[in-house]
Write a structure and sequence with these properties.
two-stranded antiparallel ribbon; 10 helices
Length: about 230
């Protein structure tokens, strides 16, 4: 999106990157490379408190029920489609950054062939340049590769690249995290170990990361033994 907007001489006030602390290592190199390539300053935003704190240590106060107003658990636990506290942190940080900018328009890189995720919150004006340009996800990846961006091979493994520990990834994608990024997978297991009492340990489809580790280990054992016959 940034490269295409610059090539079309569109006015850009700021390019921002929200650092969750849960990014694949190659993403930080990519941001630096993109900044140098385009000459466009990329501002890095951060959550008010580390995501690890939100996951494992933040006191959560009950909003209803017998314990309403009391701390009911420690740590928000893994995000889910209905409990995306991580996304809320990103959105709030971007809104805070853009608030002082007069007549600001927030541009988001949804592709032309993505499920329609365009939205309006009634306060912020949003625009989706890739949709305006008719650029699909495949087109966008081709354009990026043409300009020399490869994310150290991340898009050779994944259809999408988000936080390495995102529970919304498909099972096959998570298995690739374990295979190609063992350090990040080990960190996920440790993150789960550090969750406080009562935290949401269900990672995907009511299973934990440790459950998935057992499953993937068994699948690897089966596949390895199948090769011997």
């Amino acid at each position: 999106m940034l490269v295409e907007m610059l090539e079309r001489n569109e006015e850009i006030h700021s390019a921002v990157f929200f650092d969750t602390g849960w990014e694949f290592p190659a993403m930080y190199d990519h941001i630096e490379k993109l900044q140098k390539y385009t000459g466009q300053k990329i501002w890095t935003l951060h959550p008010t408190l580390p995501f690890d704190y939100w996951l494992t240590a933040r006191p959560v106060v009950a909003r209803k029920g017998e314990k309403k107003g009391e701390v009911c658990r420690i740590g928000c636990g893994w995000p889910s489609s209905l409990r995306r506290w991580c996304t809320r942190q990103k959105v709030d940080a971007i809104h805070k950054y853009s608030k002082p900018i007069e007549n600001d328009v927030q541009c988001i890189g949804y592709a032309a062939d993505e499920m329609d995720r365009s939205f309006s919150d009634g306060k912020i004006i949003h625009r989706f340049p890739l949709q305006d340009y008719g650029i699909t996800e495949s087109d966008a990846l081709t354009i990026c590769r043409k300009h020399g961006f490869d994310w150290d091979g991340a898009y050779d493994h994944f259809n999408r690249v988000s936080c390495f520990c995102c529970p919304l990834q498909r099972i096959g994608e998570l298995k690739k995290v374990r295979k190609y990024y063992p350090e990040q997978w080990a960190r996920m297991l440790e993150m789960e170990n550090e969750m406080g009492e009562g935290a949401q340990r269900g990672f995907k489809d009511y299973t934990t990361v440790h459950d998935l580790e057992k499953r993937f280990h068994k699948e690897d054992y089966f596949e390895d033994n199948q090769k011997t016959f």
